[in-house]
Every structure is written in structure tokens, then in C-alpha cells.
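name: query_chain
kind: protein
chains: 1
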Amino acid sequence: MQRHEEKYIIDYAQYAILKARAEKVLTPDSHGQNGSYTITSLYYDDLMDTALLEKLDGLARHTKFRLRTYDFSDKVIRLERKVKEGILTQKQSTPITREQLPAIDRLEGDLAVQMRGLRPAITVRYRRDAYLYPGTDLRLTFDTDLRVLPPDMTALFDPSYGGIPVLPGGQVIMEIKYGGYLPAFLRTLTAVPSQQLSVSKYALCREKFR
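structure:
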């Protein structure tokens, strides 16, 4: 299923204002503590860095593969393929176990087969505050403390990997995700002077790690 995904760079003062607004009308995500949790993603790319260059070259359509964990736990590990075209995104996701990770390039299944020949490229970590509008697929998220780490599977589960901060101090990435349309009230709720982000977290982190 395709969804719209808008990304904006905001400062910490704007984040505090918008978070307070969100808490009045939206529901915290059921994951984590009061909708807050750490996401760690190990991204894969080929030897030509195709996924990175598709984004940096401004191609309308680009594809990324990643492994993702939440709060360093191995209870939920997801292998994901994300395709983005403009602000439209489509994501495929399948669960995977920690025991399967060492042999991920030999697993069966649609996503595992598609990523054969790719290699670990970078690990991306951030703290997310997520809010939902009940009865809809609308999500509002704020990502803070974006960090880049080496492409090591251990980092998916080990919080002692500190990483390198990517964004200037106090900057936050706000994402608005929705299906058919964005309710007017949410557009009003998130209305602050901001810069729409055209570069992905993956690309930002790859540039920082060079």
C-alpha cells in the first residue's frame, strides 16, 4: 500500500511546541514508553552504492533495504524494502529472528532473495516520538539524536555503540505519514516555519560517515 511521507527539519523549540500540540489531539504509539523508542537500522547497498546515488542524483524512484530493531531488542527484527517516489512510499516488511541474521544472504523468501548481492553499508540510529490519529493510518513522528554507526549487526542490539551525531545540535526531523489525504487539522497543527527535507536519513548518514 502506498502512503504519503513528508519530512521536515525543525529546531528544538519548534519540536517542543509541536510535541505539546500533538499530545493534546493525537494518541502516542503503543510501542515504547509513551510512544517514545529507539530505532536502529542496518542499511544495505551494492558495491556501486546504487541506493545512495539514486537519492543523491535526484531520481524520482529509489529503493532501500534494511534490518530494523526497536530499543535494542531482538524480540522484533524486521527485514524491510522501502520504495519511494516523490512523497509516495511503499514498504514491504517481514519478521526475521536473531538466529537467522548470520545467514541472511542465504535465506529464502521474497525480500531475502531480492537483497542477495547487497552488503551492509551503514547503521542509522535515532530516538523517535510517534503519535497516531485513532481510526486512521495517519502518523506524526519526531526523530531526535540522529547518529551514524559502522555497518555492524551488533549495533542493532548494543546501546554502547555511541555513534557520530549527524545533525547540528537541536535539529529534529518531523515526518507526517498518511494514506489518501492529510486532514486539515493536522496541517494546521504542524504549521511552523520549517525546511522540507529532500535527503533521507540514510543519505545524511552516509555523507557524514565518509
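note: The radius of gyration is 17 Å.
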